[in-house]
Predict the structure of MFS transporter.
Amino acid sequence: MMTSVTYSTHLYKNKSFLFLIASQIVSAIGNWLDILAIMTLVAVKWNASPLAVSGVMLVFVGPMVLFGPISGVLSDRIERRFIMVLSDLVCLVLVLGVAFSTELWQVYVLLFLKSSFVALFIPAKNGKLKEIVEEDQIQTAMGISAMIDNGAKIIGPVLSGMVVATLGIQLAFYIDAFTFALSALLLLGVPKYDRKVVAKEIEQKKLMIFSNLLVEMKEGFTFLKGIPVILVSLIISTLLLLVLQIADTQFMVLLREIFKDPVTVAGYSMAASGGGMFIASAIFTKKQIHSTLNCMFFGAFGLGISLIAVAAMSHLSTTFLTIAYPMLFFLAGFSFGSAIIPLNILAQKITPVDKTGRVFGIINSMTTLGTLIGMVLGGILSEVFGVVMTFIVSGTSLVVVSLLTIIIKSLSKVGIEMSPKVSQQYKENRKHELLKAAESAFCQKGFEPTTMKDVVELSGMSRGGVYQYFSSTEEMLKSILAERDEQFEKKIHDFIKSNQPVWETIETILDAYNKESFHKISAVTYEYFVTGWRSEGMERIPYLLTRFNRARENYIKLLEKGVETGEFDPIQPLHTIATFLINVTDGILLQTHLAGNKEVDTEGQLEALKLYLRTVLQIN
Protein backbone atom coordinates (compact mmCIF):
# COMPACT_ATOMS: atom_id res chain seq x y z
CA MET A 1 0.00 0.00 0.00
CA MET A 2 2.87 2.38 0.75
CA THR A 3 6.46 2.88 -0.26
CA SER A 4 9.18 5.01 1.30
CA VAL A 5 9.83 8.53 0.14
CA THR A 6 12.66 10.91 0.93
CA TYR A 7 12.14 12.80 4.17
CA SER A 8 13.00 16.44 3.75
CA THR A 9 15.19 17.84 6.52
CA HIS A 10 15.08 21.30 4.94
CA LEU A 11 11.60 21.74 6.41
CA TYR A 12 13.11 22.26 9.85
CA LYS A 13 15.19 25.15 8.51
CA ASN A 14 11.99 26.96 7.52
CA LYS A 15 11.55 29.47 10.37
CA SER A 16 8.03 30.39 9.31
CA PHE A 17 6.99 26.74 9.50
CA LEU A 18 8.63 26.34 12.92
CA PHE A 19 6.75 29.32 14.34
CA LEU A 20 3.49 27.98 12.89
CA ILE A 21 3.86 24.49 14.35
CA ALA A 22 5.05 25.94 17.69
CA SER A 23 1.82 27.90 17.84
CA GLN A 24 -0.10 24.77 16.91
CA ILE A 25 1.60 22.74 19.65
CA VAL A 26 0.65 25.01 22.54
CA SER A 27 -2.83 25.67 21.17
CA ALA A 28 -3.58 21.97 20.61
CA ILE A 29 -2.44 20.97 24.10
CA GLY A 30 -4.58 23.74 25.55
CA ASN A 31 -7.61 22.59 23.58
CA TRP A 32 -7.41 19.11 25.04
CA LEU A 33 -7.03 20.50 28.56
CA ASP A 34 -10.20 22.43 27.85
CA ILE A 35 -12.24 19.56 26.34
CA LEU A 36 -11.72 17.08 29.18
CA ALA A 37 -12.33 19.80 31.78
CA ILE A 38 -15.65 20.74 30.15
CA MET A 39 -16.79 17.13 29.81
CA THR A 40 -15.92 16.52 33.45
CA LEU A 41 -17.79 19.65 34.48
CA VAL A 42 -20.95 18.75 32.53
CA ALA A 43 -21.06 14.95 32.58
CA VAL A 44 -19.60 14.25 36.03
CA LYS A 45 -19.93 17.31 38.28
CA TRP A 46 -23.33 18.44 36.93
CA ASN A 47 -24.40 14.84 36.02
CA ALA A 48 -26.05 15.99 32.80
CA SER A 49 -28.20 13.65 30.70
CA PRO A 50 -26.79 11.91 27.59
CA LEU A 51 -28.61 14.41 25.35
CA ALA A 52 -27.19 17.33 27.34
CA VAL A 53 -23.69 15.86 26.96
CA SER A 54 -24.31 15.53 23.22
CA GLY A 55 -25.39 19.17 23.27
CA VAL A 56 -21.97 20.18 24.58
CA MET A 57 -20.29 18.41 21.69
CA LEU A 58 -22.79 19.91 19.24
CA VAL A 59 -21.81 23.45 20.15
CA PHE A 60 -18.16 22.38 19.92
CA VAL A 61 -18.43 21.44 16.26
CA GLY A 62 -21.67 23.06 15.03
CA PRO A 63 -20.01 26.29 13.85
CA MET A 64 -17.90 24.22 11.44
CA VAL A 65 -21.04 23.39 9.48
CA LEU A 66 -22.44 26.89 9.66
CA PHE A 67 -19.25 28.80 8.97
CA GLY A 68 -16.91 26.25 7.36
CA PRO A 69 -17.33 27.30 3.69
CA ILE A 70 -17.55 30.99 4.60
CA SER A 71 -14.42 30.84 6.74
CA GLY A 72 -12.65 29.09 3.87
CA VAL A 73 -13.48 31.95 1.52
CA LEU A 74 -12.40 34.52 4.10
CA SER A 75 -9.06 32.77 4.59
CA ASP A 76 -8.47 33.02 0.83
CA ARG A 77 -9.26 36.73 0.78
CA ILE A 78 -8.00 38.07 4.15
CA GLU A 79 -4.45 37.80 5.43
CA ARG A 80 -4.33 34.42 7.16
CA ARG A 81 -2.01 35.33 10.01
CA PHE A 82 -4.41 38.09 11.05
CA ILE A 83 -7.30 35.60 11.12
CA MET A 84 -5.33 33.15 13.29
CA VAL A 85 -4.13 35.76 15.79
CA LEU A 86 -7.62 37.24 16.10
CA SER A 87 -9.07 33.77 16.65
CA ASP A 88 -6.58 32.98 19.42
CA LEU A 89 -7.20 36.23 21.28
CA VAL A 90 -10.99 35.92 21.15
CA CYS A 91 -10.81 32.27 22.25
CA LEU A 92 -8.67 33.33 25.22
CA VAL A 93 -11.49 35.57 26.49
CA LEU A 94 -14.19 32.97 25.85
CA VAL A 95 -12.34 30.19 27.69
CA LEU A 96 -12.06 32.41 30.75
CA GLY A 97 -15.81 32.96 30.47
CA VAL A 98 -16.43 29.17 30.55
CA ALA A 99 -14.30 28.93 33.70
CA PHE A 100 -16.76 31.15 35.55
CA SER A 101 -19.96 29.62 34.12
CA THR A 102 -22.61 28.42 36.57
CA GLU A 103 -25.32 27.22 34.15
CA LEU A 104 -25.31 24.80 31.24
CA TRP A 105 -26.75 27.39 28.83
CA GLN A 106 -23.80 29.69 29.56
CA VAL A 107 -21.39 26.92 28.59
CA TYR A 108 -23.34 26.31 25.40
CA VAL A 109 -23.21 29.98 24.34
CA LEU A 110 -19.52 30.48 25.13
CA LEU A 111 -18.49 27.21 23.48
CA PHE A 112 -20.48 28.08 20.35
CA LEU A 113 -18.70 31.43 20.06
CA LYS A 114 -15.31 29.85 20.72
CA SER A 115 -15.89 27.16 18.10
CA SER A 116 -16.95 29.82 15.60
CA PHE A 117 -13.53 31.42 15.82
CA VAL A 118 -11.82 28.02 15.69
CA ALA A 119 -13.75 27.48 12.44
CA LEU A 120 -11.98 30.57 11.11
CA PHE A 121 -8.61 29.37 12.37
CA ILE A 122 -8.47 25.90 10.74
CA PRO A 123 -8.72 26.81 7.00
CA ALA A 124 -6.47 29.80 7.63
CA LYS A 125 -3.86 27.50 9.19
CA ASN A 126 -4.08 25.03 6.30
CA GLY A 127 -3.77 27.85 3.78
CA LYS A 128 -0.81 29.39 5.63
CA LEU A 129 0.90 26.00 5.63
CA LYS A 130 0.56 25.87 1.85
CA GLU A 131 1.99 29.40 1.58
CA ILE A 132 5.18 28.78 3.53
CA VAL A 133 6.03 25.17 2.58
CA GLU A 134 7.42 23.99 -0.75
CA GLU A 135 5.41 21.54 -2.87
CA ASP A 136 7.76 18.60 -2.30
CA GLN A 137 7.50 19.07 1.48
CA ILE A 138 3.71 19.31 1.77
CA GLN A 139 3.16 15.67 2.75
CA THR A 140 5.86 15.88 5.41
CA ALA A 141 4.47 19.18 6.72
CA MET A 142 0.91 17.81 6.84
CA GLY A 143 2.13 14.70 8.60
CA ILE A 144 3.98 16.79 11.19
CA SER A 145 0.90 18.95 11.68
CA ALA A 146 -1.21 15.83 12.23
CA MET A 147 1.42 14.43 14.61
CA ILE A 148 1.20 17.63 16.65
CA ASP A 149 -2.58 17.45 16.82
CA ASN A 150 -2.47 13.82 17.83
CA GLY A 151 0.50 14.22 20.15
CA ALA A 152 -1.54 16.86 21.97
CA LYS A 153 -4.21 14.21 22.45
CA ILE A 154 -1.63 12.21 24.40
CA ILE A 155 -0.24 15.01 26.54
CA GLY A 156 -3.38 17.13 26.89
CA PRO A 157 -5.78 14.56 28.38
CA VAL A 158 -3.11 13.20 30.77
CA LEU A 159 -2.28 16.71 31.96
CA SER A 160 -5.95 17.63 32.14
CA GLY A 161 -6.77 14.49 34.12
CA MET A 162 -3.98 15.27 36.57
CA VAL A 163 -4.94 18.96 36.84
CA VAL A 164 -8.68 18.31 37.23
CA ALA A 165 -8.17 15.49 39.74
CA THR A 166 -5.64 17.32 41.93
CA LEU A 167 -6.14 21.07 41.47
CA GLY A 168 -9.69 21.42 40.18
CA ILE A 169 -11.51 22.13 36.93
CA GLN A 170 -10.97 25.89 36.83
CA LEU A 171 -7.18 25.69 36.65
CA ALA A 172 -7.46 23.65 33.45
CA PHE A 173 -9.38 26.54 31.89
CA TYR A 174 -6.76 29.06 33.05
CA ILE A 175 -3.97 27.02 31.46
CA ASP A 176 -5.95 26.78 28.23
CA ALA A 177 -6.40 30.58 28.18
CA PHE A 178 -2.64 30.98 28.62
CA THR A 179 -1.94 28.65 25.67
CA PHE A 180 -4.13 30.80 23.40
CA ALA A 181 -2.14 33.89 24.40
CA LEU A 182 1.17 32.11 23.76
CA SER A 183 -0.11 30.79 20.42
CA ALA A 184 -1.03 34.30 19.26
CA LEU A 185 2.42 35.54 20.29
CA LEU A 186 4.18 32.77 18.33
CA LEU A 187 2.09 33.50 15.24
CA LEU A 188 3.70 36.92 15.04
CA GLY A 189 6.81 35.06 13.86
CA VAL A 190 4.91 33.77 10.81
CA PRO A 191 5.23 36.31 7.97
CA LYS A 192 2.33 37.86 6.16
CA TYR A 193 1.77 36.69 2.62
CA ASP A 194 1.72 39.54 0.14
CA ARG A 195 -0.35 38.11 -2.68
CA LYS A 196 0.38 39.74 -6.02
CA VAL A 197 -2.66 40.50 -8.09
CA VAL A 198 -3.01 38.94 -11.52
CA ALA A 199 -5.85 41.15 -12.71
CA LYS A 200 -8.04 44.00 -11.51
CA GLU A 201 -11.05 41.76 -11.06
CA ILE A 202 -9.24 39.88 -8.28
CA GLU A 203 -8.74 43.14 -6.43
CA GLN A 204 -12.45 43.79 -6.79
CA LYS A 205 -13.17 40.40 -5.26
CA LYS A 206 -11.13 41.36 -2.22
CA LEU A 207 -13.21 44.50 -1.81
CA MET A 208 -16.49 42.62 -2.28
CA ILE A 209 -15.92 39.61 -0.01
CA PHE A 210 -19.44 39.00 1.14
CA SER A 211 -21.06 39.58 -2.24
CA ASN A 212 -18.77 36.94 -3.70
CA LEU A 213 -19.14 34.27 -0.99
CA LEU A 214 -21.54 32.07 -2.94
CA VAL A 215 -19.41 32.31 -6.07
CA GLU A 216 -16.23 31.41 -4.18
CA MET A 217 -17.88 28.51 -2.36
CA LYS A 218 -19.19 27.21 -5.69
CA GLU A 219 -15.62 27.27 -7.02
CA GLY A 220 -14.55 25.08 -4.11
CA PHE A 221 -17.33 22.57 -4.83
CA THR A 222 -16.47 22.63 -8.54
CA PHE A 223 -12.84 21.85 -7.73
CA LEU A 224 -13.83 18.87 -5.56
CA LYS A 225 -16.18 17.55 -8.23
CA GLY A 226 -13.32 17.61 -10.72
CA ILE A 227 -11.21 15.23 -8.62
CA PRO A 228 -13.16 12.03 -7.87
CA VAL A 229 -10.63 10.63 -5.39
CA ILE A 230 -11.14 13.58 -3.04
CA LEU A 231 -14.91 13.71 -3.47
CA VAL A 232 -15.43 9.98 -2.86
CA SER A 233 -13.02 9.95 0.09
CA LEU A 234 -14.78 12.98 1.55
CA ILE A 235 -18.20 11.31 1.34
CA ILE A 236 -16.88 8.18 3.05
CA SER A 237 -15.10 10.24 5.72
CA THR A 238 -18.33 12.11 6.43
CA LEU A 239 -20.22 8.83 6.82
CA LEU A 240 -17.44 7.40 8.99
CA LEU A 241 -17.49 10.39 11.33
CA LEU A 242 -21.27 10.25 11.55
CA VAL A 243 -21.39 6.69 12.85
CA LEU A 244 -18.26 7.15 15.00
CA GLN A 245 -19.76 10.12 16.85
CA ILE A 246 -22.78 8.03 17.84
CA ALA A 247 -20.48 6.40 20.40
CA ASP A 248 -17.78 9.02 20.85
CA THR A 249 -20.03 11.66 22.41
CA GLN A 250 -21.28 9.11 24.95
CA PHE A 251 -17.81 8.06 26.06
CA MET A 252 -17.92 9.94 29.37
CA VAL A 253 -21.48 8.71 30.00
CA LEU A 254 -20.27 5.11 29.60
CA LEU A 255 -17.33 5.65 31.95
CA ARG A 256 -19.40 7.26 34.70
CA GLU A 257 -21.68 4.18 34.70
CA ILE A 258 -18.68 1.87 35.16
CA PHE A 259 -16.13 3.75 37.29
CA LYS A 260 -16.40 5.71 40.51
CA ASP A 261 -13.62 8.00 39.26
CA PRO A 262 -14.14 8.23 35.47
CA VAL A 263 -11.83 11.24 34.99
CA THR A 264 -8.58 9.30 35.39
CA VAL A 265 -9.65 6.47 33.06
CA ALA A 266 -10.95 9.03 30.57
CA GLY A 267 -7.60 10.82 30.61
CA TYR A 268 -5.65 7.60 30.00
CA SER A 269 -8.04 6.42 27.27
CA MET A 270 -8.00 9.76 25.46
CA ALA A 271 -4.21 9.85 25.73
CA ALA A 272 -3.99 6.32 24.32
CA SER A 273 -6.29 7.31 21.45
CA GLY A 274 -4.04 10.28 20.76
CA GLY A 275 -1.04 7.97 20.86
CA GLY A 276 -2.56 5.75 18.19
CA MET A 277 -3.27 8.74 15.97
CA PHE A 278 0.24 10.06 16.62
CA ILE A 279 1.79 6.85 15.33
CA ALA A 280 -0.53 6.85 12.31
CA SER A 281 0.54 10.44 11.60
CA ALA A 282 4.22 9.50 11.87
CA ILE A 283 3.76 6.64 9.41
CA PHE A 284 1.96 8.77 6.83
CA THR A 285 4.57 11.49 7.20
CA LYS A 286 7.26 9.19 5.85
CA LYS A 287 5.35 6.93 3.46
CA GLN A 288 3.71 7.51 0.11
CA ILE A 289 0.01 6.60 0.09
CA HIS A 290 -1.12 4.74 -3.01
CA SER A 291 -4.78 4.18 -2.13
CA THR A 292 -6.87 6.37 0.16
CA LEU A 293 -9.72 3.87 0.00
CA ASN A 294 -7.53 1.03 1.25
CA CYS A 295 -6.50 3.19 4.19
CA MET A 296 -10.13 4.08 4.89
CA PHE A 297 -11.21 0.44 4.76
CA PHE A 298 -8.68 -0.69 7.38
CA GLY A 299 -9.31 2.41 9.48
CA ALA A 300 -13.10 2.05 9.58
CA PHE A 301 -12.84 -1.69 10.27
CA GLY A 302 -10.39 -1.17 13.14
CA LEU A 303 -12.60 1.51 14.65
CA GLY A 304 -15.66 -0.72 14.46
CA ILE A 305 -13.96 -3.66 16.16
CA SER A 306 -12.61 -1.38 18.89
CA LEU A 307 -16.00 0.09 19.78
CA ILE A 308 -17.73 -3.29 19.75
CA ALA A 309 -15.05 -4.59 22.13
CA VAL A 310 -15.50 -1.57 24.45
CA ALA A 311 -19.21 -2.38 24.75
CA ALA A 312 -18.72 -6.14 25.08
CA MET A 313 -16.22 -5.73 27.95
CA SER A 314 -18.23 -3.15 29.92
CA HIS A 315 -19.49 -5.75 32.45
CA LEU A 316 -15.98 -6.91 33.40
CA SER A 317 -14.07 -5.75 36.47
CA THR A 318 -12.99 -2.13 36.67
CA THR A 319 -9.40 -3.17 37.39
CA PHE A 320 -9.23 -5.04 34.09
CA LEU A 321 -10.99 -2.26 32.18
CA THR A 322 -8.57 0.34 33.50
CA ILE A 323 -5.92 -1.46 31.44
CA ALA A 324 -8.05 -2.79 28.58
CA TYR A 325 -9.85 0.43 27.66
CA PRO A 326 -6.70 2.49 26.98
CA MET A 327 -5.44 -0.38 24.78
CA LEU A 328 -8.69 -0.47 22.81
CA PHE A 329 -8.68 3.29 22.41
CA PHE A 330 -5.10 3.16 21.19
CA LEU A 331 -6.30 0.84 18.40
CA ALA A 332 -9.25 3.14 17.75
CA GLY A 333 -6.99 6.18 17.52
CA PHE A 334 -4.60 4.45 15.13
CA SER A 335 -7.51 3.27 12.98
CA PHE A 336 -9.08 6.72 12.91
CA GLY A 337 -5.77 8.31 11.86
CA SER A 338 -5.36 5.73 9.11
CA ALA A 339 -8.80 6.56 7.77
CA ILE A 340 -8.71 10.38 7.95
CA ILE A 341 -5.10 11.55 7.53
CA PRO A 342 -4.64 10.34 3.89
CA LEU A 343 -7.59 12.47 2.74
CA ASN A 344 -6.11 15.60 4.32
CA ILE A 345 -2.69 14.94 2.81
CA LEU A 346 -4.16 14.30 -0.63
CA ALA A 347 -6.34 17.41 -0.56
CA GLN A 348 -3.44 19.57 0.62
CA LYS A 349 -1.11 18.29 -2.10
CA ILE A 350 -3.57 18.69 -4.96
CA THR A 351 -5.33 21.92 -4.01
CA PRO A 352 -3.74 25.12 -5.37
CA VAL A 353 -2.86 27.69 -2.72
CA ASP A 354 -5.51 30.18 -3.91
CA LYS A 355 -8.28 27.59 -3.31
CA THR A 356 -6.96 25.96 -0.13
CA GLY A 357 -9.23 27.88 2.21
CA ARG A 358 -12.37 27.19 0.19
CA VAL A 359 -11.63 23.51 -0.32
CA PHE A 360 -10.73 22.81 3.30
CA GLY A 361 -13.67 24.92 4.46
CA ILE A 362 -15.97 22.64 2.48
CA ILE A 363 -14.17 19.49 3.66
CA ASN A 364 -14.43 20.61 7.29
CA SER A 365 -18.06 21.61 6.80
CA MET A 366 -19.12 18.24 5.35
CA THR A 367 -17.22 16.13 7.86
CA THR A 368 -18.50 18.26 10.71
CA LEU A 369 -22.06 17.93 9.43
CA GLY A 370 -21.65 14.16 9.69
CA THR A 371 -20.23 14.63 13.16
CA LEU A 372 -23.22 16.73 14.24
CA ILE A 373 -25.75 14.18 13.01
CA GLY A 374 -23.84 11.42 14.79
CA MET A 375 -23.83 13.38 18.04
CA VAL A 376 -27.59 13.85 17.98
CA LEU A 377 -28.17 10.18 17.15
CA GLY A 378 -25.79 9.14 19.92
CA GLY A 379 -27.68 11.15 22.54
CA ILE A 380 -31.05 9.78 21.40
CA LEU A 381 -29.89 6.15 21.22
CA SER A 382 -28.23 6.39 24.62
CA GLU A 383 -31.40 7.81 26.19
CA VAL A 384 -33.63 5.15 24.62
CA PHE A 385 -31.50 1.97 24.51
CA GLY A 386 -28.66 2.66 26.89
CA VAL A 387 -25.04 3.64 26.34
CA VAL A 388 -23.72 0.08 25.87
CA MET A 389 -26.10 -0.62 23.01
CA THR A 390 -25.14 2.76 21.50
CA PHE A 391 -21.51 1.64 21.32
CA ILE A 392 -22.52 -1.65 19.67
CA VAL A 393 -24.61 0.16 17.03
CA SER A 394 -21.77 2.58 16.30
CA GLY A 395 -19.13 -0.17 16.03
CA THR A 396 -21.28 -2.36 13.79
CA SER A 397 -22.06 0.59 11.52
CA LEU A 398 -18.34 1.33 11.17
CA VAL A 399 -17.71 -2.24 10.00
CA VAL A 400 -20.48 -1.73 7.41
CA VAL A 401 -18.79 1.50 6.27
CA SER A 402 -15.50 -0.37 5.82
CA LEU A 403 -17.22 -2.95 3.62
CA LEU A 404 -18.96 -0.18 1.67
CA THR A 405 -15.53 1.36 0.99
CA ILE A 406 -14.30 -1.83 -0.65
CA ILE A 407 -17.46 -2.11 -2.72
CA ILE A 408 -17.09 1.46 -3.98
CA LYS A 409 -13.46 0.83 -4.87
CA SER A 410 -14.31 -2.30 -6.84
CA LEU A 411 -17.16 -0.59 -8.70
CA SER A 412 -15.30 2.64 -9.44
CA LYS A 413 -12.21 1.90 -11.47
CA VAL A 414 -11.61 5.47 -12.69
CA GLY A 415 -10.35 8.34 -10.61
CA ILE A 416 -10.30 6.58 -7.24
CA GLU A 417 -6.67 5.69 -6.65
CA MET A 418 -4.18 7.88 -4.82
CA SER A 419 -2.76 9.19 -8.07
CA PRO A 420 -6.01 10.87 -9.12
CA LYS A 421 -7.04 11.03 -12.73
CA VAL A 422 -8.38 14.55 -12.56
CA SER A 423 -11.00 15.54 -15.08
CA GLN A 424 -9.82 16.92 -18.40
CA GLN A 425 -11.91 20.01 -17.81
CA TYR A 426 -10.12 20.66 -14.52
CA LYS A 427 -6.73 20.30 -16.20
CA GLU A 428 -7.75 22.70 -18.94
CA ASN A 429 -9.03 25.23 -16.41
CA ARG A 430 -5.80 25.13 -14.39
CA LYS A 431 -3.71 25.38 -17.53
CA HIS A 432 -5.76 28.38 -18.69
CA GLU A 433 -5.27 30.10 -15.33
CA LEU A 434 -1.53 29.53 -15.54
CA LEU A 435 -1.34 30.96 -19.03
CA LYS A 436 -3.25 34.05 -17.91
CA ALA A 437 -0.74 34.53 -15.10
CA ALA A 438 2.19 33.96 -17.48
CA GLU A 439 0.77 36.43 -20.02
CA SER A 440 0.37 39.01 -17.27
CA ALA A 441 3.99 38.47 -16.17
CA PHE A 442 5.30 38.72 -19.75
CA CYS A 443 3.38 41.95 -20.34
CA GLN A 444 4.71 43.47 -17.11
CA LYS A 445 8.37 42.51 -17.39
CA GLY A 446 8.94 41.28 -20.94
CA PHE A 447 9.72 37.72 -21.98
CA GLU A 448 13.43 37.46 -21.20
CA PRO A 449 13.32 38.88 -17.63
CA THR A 450 10.29 36.80 -16.61
CA THR A 451 11.12 33.71 -14.54
CA MET A 452 9.10 30.69 -13.51
CA LYS A 453 9.11 32.13 -9.98
CA ASP A 454 7.28 35.21 -11.29
CA VAL A 455 4.58 33.03 -12.80
CA VAL A 456 4.30 30.92 -9.63
CA GLU A 457 3.71 34.04 -7.54
CA LEU A 458 1.15 35.53 -9.93
CA SER A 459 -0.75 32.26 -10.38
CA GLY A 460 -1.11 31.56 -6.66
CA MET A 461 -0.20 27.92 -7.32
CA SER A 462 2.70 26.06 -5.77
CA ARG A 463 5.93 25.68 -7.72
CA GLY A 464 5.37 21.94 -8.08
CA GLY A 465 1.83 22.54 -9.31
CA VAL A 466 3.06 24.92 -12.03
CA TYR A 467 5.76 22.50 -13.20
CA GLN A 468 3.12 19.79 -13.61
CA TYR A 469 1.86 21.77 -16.59
CA PHE A 470 4.86 23.69 -17.94
CA SER A 471 8.61 23.25 -17.63
CA SER A 472 9.69 26.73 -18.76
CA THR A 473 8.50 30.23 -19.59
CA GLU A 474 9.25 29.54 -23.26
CA GLU A 475 6.84 26.62 -23.22
CA MET A 476 4.22 28.91 -21.69
CA LEU A 477 4.71 31.60 -24.33
CA LYS A 478 4.43 29.04 -27.11
CA SER A 479 1.17 27.79 -25.60
CA ILE A 480 -0.15 31.36 -25.46
CA LEU A 481 0.81 31.93 -29.10
CA ALA A 482 -0.64 28.58 -30.16
CA GLU A 483 -3.94 29.47 -28.53
CA ARG A 484 -4.00 32.87 -30.26
CA ASP A 485 -3.10 31.26 -33.61
CA GLU A 486 -5.92 28.74 -33.24
CA GLN A 487 -8.39 31.49 -32.42
CA PHE A 488 -7.30 33.48 -35.47
CA GLU A 489 -7.47 30.44 -37.73
CA LYS A 490 -10.94 29.59 -36.46
CA LYS A 491 -12.03 33.17 -37.12
CA ILE A 492 -10.75 32.97 -40.72
CA HIS A 493 -12.50 29.65 -41.30
CA ASP A 494 -15.75 31.02 -39.87
CA PHE A 495 -15.48 34.01 -42.19
CA ILE A 496 -14.88 31.74 -45.19
CA LYS A 497 -17.95 29.63 -44.34
CA SER A 498 -20.14 32.70 -43.85
CA ASN A 499 -21.91 34.64 -46.59
CA GLN A 500 -20.17 37.87 -45.62
CA PRO A 501 -18.29 39.53 -48.49
CA VAL A 502 -14.57 38.85 -48.26
CA TRP A 503 -13.64 42.52 -48.38
CA GLU A 504 -15.86 43.22 -45.35
CA THR A 505 -14.08 40.36 -43.61
CA ILE A 506 -10.67 41.87 -44.37
CA GLU A 507 -11.79 45.24 -43.06
CA THR A 508 -13.05 43.59 -39.89
CA ILE A 509 -9.67 41.91 -39.39
CA LEU A 510 -7.75 45.14 -39.94
CA ASP A 511 -10.04 47.06 -37.60
CA ALA A 512 -9.30 44.40 -34.99
CA TYR A 513 -5.58 44.98 -35.61
CA ASN A 514 -6.13 48.61 -34.66
CA LYS A 515 -7.45 47.46 -31.26
CA GLU A 516 -4.75 44.80 -31.04
CA SER A 517 -2.09 47.53 -31.12
CA PHE A 518 -2.77 48.07 -27.43
CA HIS A 519 -2.20 44.39 -26.53
CA LYS A 520 1.27 44.06 -25.04
CA ILE A 521 1.55 40.34 -25.75
CA SER A 522 2.27 41.28 -29.37
CA ALA A 523 5.35 43.20 -28.22
CA VAL A 524 6.38 40.20 -26.13
CA THR A 525 6.07 38.04 -29.24
CA TYR A 526 8.34 40.39 -31.21
CA GLU A 527 10.85 40.39 -28.35
CA TYR A 528 10.92 36.60 -28.32
CA PHE A 529 11.60 36.28 -32.03
CA VAL A 530 13.93 39.28 -32.39
CA THR A 531 16.26 37.82 -29.77
CA GLY A 532 16.25 34.62 -31.83
CA TRP A 533 19.04 35.96 -34.08
CA ARG A 534 21.57 35.05 -31.38
CA SER A 535 23.28 31.71 -31.78
CA GLU A 536 21.70 30.27 -28.62
CA GLY A 537 18.26 31.31 -29.82
CA MET A 538 18.45 30.20 -33.46
CA GLU A 539 15.95 27.40 -32.82
CA ARG A 540 13.27 30.08 -32.59
CA ILE A 541 13.62 30.97 -36.28
CA PRO A 542 12.04 27.74 -37.63
CA TYR A 543 9.19 28.22 -35.15
CA LEU A 544 8.73 31.80 -36.41
CA LEU A 545 8.61 30.61 -40.01
CA THR A 546 6.09 27.89 -39.13
CA ARG A 547 3.74 30.44 -37.54
CA PHE A 548 4.30 32.87 -40.43
CA ASN A 549 3.50 30.25 -43.07
CA ARG A 550 0.40 29.14 -41.17
CA ALA A 551 -0.93 32.71 -41.00
CA ARG A 552 -0.13 33.31 -44.66
CA GLU A 553 -1.96 30.16 -45.74
CA ASN A 554 -5.05 31.29 -43.85
CA TYR A 555 -4.96 34.68 -45.57
CA ILE A 556 -4.47 33.02 -48.97
CA LYS A 557 -7.54 30.84 -48.36
CA LEU A 558 -9.55 33.93 -47.55
CA LEU A 559 -8.35 35.73 -50.68
CA GLU A 560 -9.01 32.66 -52.83
CA LYS A 561 -12.65 32.74 -51.78
CA GLY A 562 -12.86 36.36 -52.99
CA VAL A 563 -11.40 35.30 -56.33
CA GLU A 564 -13.78 32.30 -56.62
CA THR A 565 -16.85 34.43 -55.96
CA GLY A 566 -15.70 37.06 -58.47
CA GLU A 567 -15.28 39.70 -55.77
CA PHE A 568 -11.51 40.10 -56.46
CA ASP A 569 -9.47 40.31 -59.66
CA PRO A 570 -5.94 40.57 -58.19
CA ILE A 571 -3.08 42.08 -60.16
CA GLN A 572 -0.44 40.41 -57.95
CA PRO A 573 -0.07 36.78 -56.81
CA LEU A 574 -2.15 36.01 -53.73
CA HIS A 575 1.01 34.64 -52.10
CA THR A 576 2.65 38.08 -52.42
CA ILE A 577 -0.41 39.98 -51.21
CA ALA A 578 -0.78 37.77 -48.12
CA THR A 579 2.93 38.09 -47.31
CA PHE A 580 2.79 41.87 -47.69
CA LEU A 581 -0.32 42.05 -45.49
CA ILE A 582 1.37 40.17 -42.64
CA ASN A 583 4.64 42.09 -42.82
CA VAL A 584 2.94 45.50 -42.90
CA THR A 585 0.57 44.74 -40.01
CA ASP A 586 3.44 43.33 -37.94
CA GLY A 587 5.48 46.45 -38.62
CA ILE A 588 2.62 48.77 -37.71
CA LEU A 589 1.96 46.94 -34.46
CA LEU A 590 5.64 46.90 -33.50
CA GLN A 591 6.03 50.62 -34.14
CA THR A 592 2.87 51.32 -32.19
CA HIS A 593 4.22 49.48 -29.16
CA LEU A 594 7.51 51.37 -29.37
CA ALA A 595 6.29 54.89 -30.09
CA GLY A 596 2.57 54.92 -29.33
CA ASN A 597 -0.62 54.97 -31.36
CA LYS A 598 -0.73 58.72 -31.92
CA GLU A 599 2.94 59.07 -32.93
CA VAL A 600 2.78 56.21 -35.42
CA ASP A 601 -0.71 57.10 -36.64
CA THR A 602 -1.81 53.50 -36.38
CA GLU A 603 -5.29 54.09 -37.70
CA GLY A 604 -3.99 56.07 -40.69
CA GLN A 605 -1.41 53.40 -41.51
CA LEU A 606 -4.09 50.71 -41.51
CA GLU A 607 -6.28 52.83 -43.78
CA ALA A 608 -3.29 53.15 -46.14
CA LEU A 609 -2.98 49.36 -46.12
CA LYS A 610 -6.67 49.08 -46.99
CA LEU A 611 -6.12 51.46 -49.92
CA TYR A 612 -3.29 49.25 -51.21
CA LEU A 613 -5.42 46.13 -50.88
CA ARG A 614 -8.36 47.69 -52.73
CA THR A 615 -6.00 48.58 -55.55
CA VAL A 616 -4.12 45.30 -55.77
CA LEU A 617 -7.21 43.13 -55.38
CA GLN A 618 -9.22 45.10 -57.95
CA ILE A 619 -12.45 44.79 -55.96
CA ASN A 620 -15.49 44.37 -58.26
Q: What stands out?
A: The chain has 25 helices and two strands. Residues 1-9, 194-213, 413-422 have pLDDT under 50 and may be disordered.
